[in-house]
């Protein structure tokens, strides 16, 4: 697992753990991150070995949403088409996640810690 990648991927049995890894930016999704997540979700949906996808955030935030800085910059510079492409990718990712055929869990680790994170997490991993 590459600790410098904006999305870290971990395999545990039939589960895949995707960790958003931009903690200083509260894990806001860049266009490249959205594209990578979309690729991973689509690949895992077709992979019979994958039964569960867990999405979590590194640091204190799960995800603060899409990165609006490049979108605004593109519009101000007259490149509205680039911003439209960013929104199209984000909405496609939202659609794929909303209609996903396999089990998926999005987790804010700091909230789960309050309900004994290790037991819940291990139960999720070991049940798939």
UniProtKB/TrEMBL annotation:
Pfam family, one: ECH_2
EC number(s) given by UniProt: 3.1.2.4
InterPro entries per record: ClpP/crotonase-like_dom_sf (IPR029045), ECH_dom (IPR045004), HIBYL-CoA-H (IPR032259)
MF (Gene Ontology): hydrolase activity
Catalytic activity: 3-hydroxy-2-methylpropanoyl-CoA + H2O = 3-hydroxy-2-methylpropanoate + CoA + H(+)
Domain of life: Eukaryota
Keywords for the protein's UniProt record, in alphabetical order: Hydrolase
Pathway recorded for this protein: Amino-acid degradation; L-valine degradation
Domain Enoyl-CoA hydratase/isomerase: 16-107
Listed Gene3D superfamilies: 2-enoyl-CoA Hydratase, Chain A, domain 1
UniProt similarity note: Belongs to the enoyl-CoA hydratase/isomerase family.
Purpose of the protein: Hydrolyzes 3-hydroxyisobutyryl-CoA (HIBYL-CoA), a saline catabolite. Has high activity toward isobutyryl-CoA. Could be an isobutyryl-CoA dehydrogenase that functions in valine catabolism.
Name of the protein in its database record: 3-hydroxyisobutyryl-CoA hydrolase
Organism annotation: Camelina sativa
